[in-house]
Design goal:
The protein has about 140 residues and is of the alpha+beta class. It is built from four helices and three strands; from the N terminus they run H-E-E-H-H-E-H. The protein is about 45% helix and about 15% strand. Strands 1-2-3 form a three-stranded antiparallel β-sheet. A hairpin with a 5-residue loop joins strand 1 and strand 2. The N and C termini lie far apart (about 65 Å).
């Protein structure tokens, strides 16, 4: 039984390998998330994202601003809340398919949001690194 616990924690700590992600011709990619549900059952859920274009990045900024609009003084909002607003805005724009139980507006699992956003960001950054633009003189 001790070995099982060690194997599970090693699996959970495994670094996300973006080479496993396949980018379709529509610039969509799938991120599988493995988690333990409320009944202590190990499950995997599929989340499909799109790579953001310029219009998507503008929409992310607009949604983030709308989420924070009730703040009287944005300078007093913690960095944590600013980050959460950006996570939510990004997922609202770039998440194109998710499990039926996942509702970004009703979600109360900040850890899941952070994992999704972190993995999404990893893929987007790797994709952009591979397409470096070289400007000739």
């Amino acid at each position: 039984m001790g070995d099982t616990t060690t194997k599970e924690s090693t699996t959970e700590e495994k670094e996300f390998d973006v080479t496993e992600i396949v980018l379709s011709d529509k610039k969509l990619f799938e991120i599988p998330i493995t988690f333990i549900d409320v009944d202590d059952q190990k499950k995997t859920a599929k989340f499909v994202f799109k790579l953001p274009n310029i219009q998507d990045m503008i929409r992310i900024g607009i949604i983030e601003t709308q989420l924070l609009e009730d703040s009287k003084n944005i300078a007093e909002v913690s960095q944590y809340i600013l980050n959460v607003a950006y996570f939510v805005a990004t997922l609202k724009v770039c998440l194109v398919e998710c499990p039926a139980w996942f509702d970004i507006d009703e979600n109360d699992d900040i850890d899941l949001l952070e994992v999704l956003y972190d993995k999404y960001t990893l893929v987007v950054e790797r994709f952009r690194e591979k397409r470096k633009i070289v400007v000739s003189k």
